[in-house]
Amino acid sequence: MSWYLYLILGYLLVLMGFNFYRSFKVKTQDEMMVAGRSLSMRVMVFTLICTWIGSGTFIAGAEYAAKAGWSSLWLPAGAWIGIVIIYFLAEKIRTFGKYTIGDILEVRYGKFARFFGALALIISFIAIVSYQFRAGGYILNVVSKGAISVELGQAMTAGFVILFTAAAGMMAVAYTDLPNGIIILTASVLAAPVMYYLSGGWEAAVIDLPQEHFAVFNKDFGAHPLLKAGSYFLATMFLLMGVQSMYQKFYSAKTPRDARHAVALWVVGTVVVETVVVVIAVFAASHFWEPIKEFEIINRVKSQIASGQNLTDQIPETLNSIINQEFSAGNINQAQKERIVNDLLINQNIGDLDRLNQLLKEKAIDPASIVLKAAQTIADQGGVFLIIGLLLLAAAVAVVISTGMNYLLSPTTNVMRDIYQRFINPNASQKSMVTLQKVMIIVFGVFAYYLATNLTSVLEMSYFAYTIYGVAITPALIAALLWKRATRLGGLISIIGGALITIFLKFTGYIWPSVMVPIGDPNGDPWGIPLIYPALFFSIASLILFSYLTKAPSPAELKELFPEKE
Q1: Cis omega (within 30 of 0) on the bond before 518?
Q2: Is the distance from CB of 25 to CB of 171 less than 8 angstroms?
Q3: Which pLDDT belongs to residue 2?
Q4: What digits encode the pLDDT tens for the residues 426-479?
Q5: Has this prediction a pTM greater than 0.85?
Q6: Pairing of strands 525-526, 516-517
Q7: Residue 517 gets which letter from DSSP?
Q8: What are the φ and ψ backbone dihedral angles of 4, each rounded to 5 degrees?
Q9: Is-contact 133 453, C-beta < 8 A?
Q10: CB neighbours of 469 closer than 8 A, spacing ≥ 6?
Q11: Residue 422 burial (CB count, 10 A)
Q12: Which backbone phi and psi does 163 adopt, to 5 degrees?
């Protein structure tokens, strides 16, 4: 077993000891949910970076970059614009000084908006936690060189995240994020130029990668590449503008001024990290393009056999056919085609699925693990490169742990504040609130782990989670903070309708697969239109329409979020 693994586990044990130390300081609801409102600007900056930079960046975003090239920057770019918008709201959010976004939704739209908003958030955030666990499985599988399976690795990750979060809540989350954030920023910046050098630079990438990797809108985006790129942009932008984990951090700041200044530095850190991760992924993909294509080709063969399109005894013929298709589409060049044929067909004696699975393990590289392979490749060079590679592996662990903790804590805060304390036991004691929230962290963590065991694509799950949250919560939330004319009915219909349409369109492929593009692909788009467009249109249009059809809020209803200036 690789000694890399022992270093990673040692790092996690240090974090565990730190979190248990912090757990003894957590006595009140304020300390569990918002760290006693004591976070300095320095801690705020790194905890904001860690909250946003998760496996969505290091696994899903990197997978997307490996497959699509530079056009994958459309995915993180939406978040960058979202942070700029949030900069102008940070002081106001901290001044409001509550616990959850449900506090804002109830002030403007009533208790049912708070309840349904909490449900949408819980669905989205548990999905996000699930793919953090899956990403942890990838990491431990890679650093152990296969000794730990992806399934065992995600179980270990789930255990660490649940334990850390239940121990001390926001006190653990924020102060764990400080060293994690430093590691993430340092490792990413150092690793990018090294991977560029090891891959042979720009000239080698142009030769090794398809031309589409250098396009603004990759043709593989879907039926309408421009619409697909825009959907990724909008999904991340709307998620970030409304994501509760960020609002909880603003509530946790010492002062409104600290919150706003932290956001200004946060945007710089986020742009840097997400850009260099794409750089690492693209040049690592150039370095490993043939094993990546072998992974995709073998899985296409397995999928055709599973669906009954081809028989097991036709594996060699099917492999050869798909390799030729990839060459004709321009996804591999002549030299790459010859090497892939040699790897997968010549002298391989493929006769059954077991041999195909063995080839998958021996020859192929999952693009979801491309940053991890880059880290290993860098570390294997020895010397100072060893340190940089280990830092990048540690950064991958840090983002999974930090993001998993943030998104596991957040929905349990909603359950306690927006459901239990609001509707069931308004007079709950501080001790019982803290204890019950720890129980809920374990319950939600176990459910997220169950989802992780049935997860096929981190990228697809992240896109769905971003979309349902962005269309159900963000329009009503931003309107609550900025638009005085927004009414209770408008906000409520926006929240409920946005969530229901997103869920319906997501599962359309399983009900009527013929409407999906590519045809019959549940991860495609219904009629070729990304689901965020109709869902977001309904959410915003219903918010505006029903607000103007109903009576405007009174000054008394607005005073908490729009106080009169003296």
Answers
A1: yes
A2: yes
A3: 62
A4: 888 877 887 888 888 899 999 999 888 876 666 677 777 778 888 988 999 899
A5: no
A6: antiparallel
A7: E
A8: -55, -40
A9: no
A10: 120, 121, 124, 125, 238, 239, 242, 243
A11: 18
A12: -65, -45
Length of the chain: 566
Q: What letter represents residue 435's amino acid?
A: T
* Spacing of C-alpha 470 from chain mean position: 13
**What are 486's two structure tokens?**
């927004």
* Degrees to nearest 5, angle at CA 195 with 191 and 196: 120
- Tokens linked to 148: 């730990």
pLDDT digits (tens, 9 = 90+) for 414-428: 788 778 887 788 888
Distance, CA of 131 to CA of 133 (rounded, Å): 5
State phi, psi for 466 to the nearest 5 degrees. -60, -45
Beta bridge partners of 517: 525
Residue in 470, 540, 464 with CA at minimum distance from that of residue 506: 464
d(CA 471, CA 9): 38
Q: Which two tokens stand for residue 399?
A: 């983002």
Q: What does the block give as tokens for 501?
A: 């349409």
Residues 416 and 37: their CA atoms lie apart, in Å, by 18
Question: Which bin fits 536, alpha (ψ -120 to 50), beta or left (φ > 0)?
Answer: alpha
- The two tokens of residue 18 are 């730190």
Residue 537 amino acid letter: F
In 415-551, where does DSSP find H-type helix?
A: 430-453, 458-472, 474-482, 488-506, 508-511, 532-549
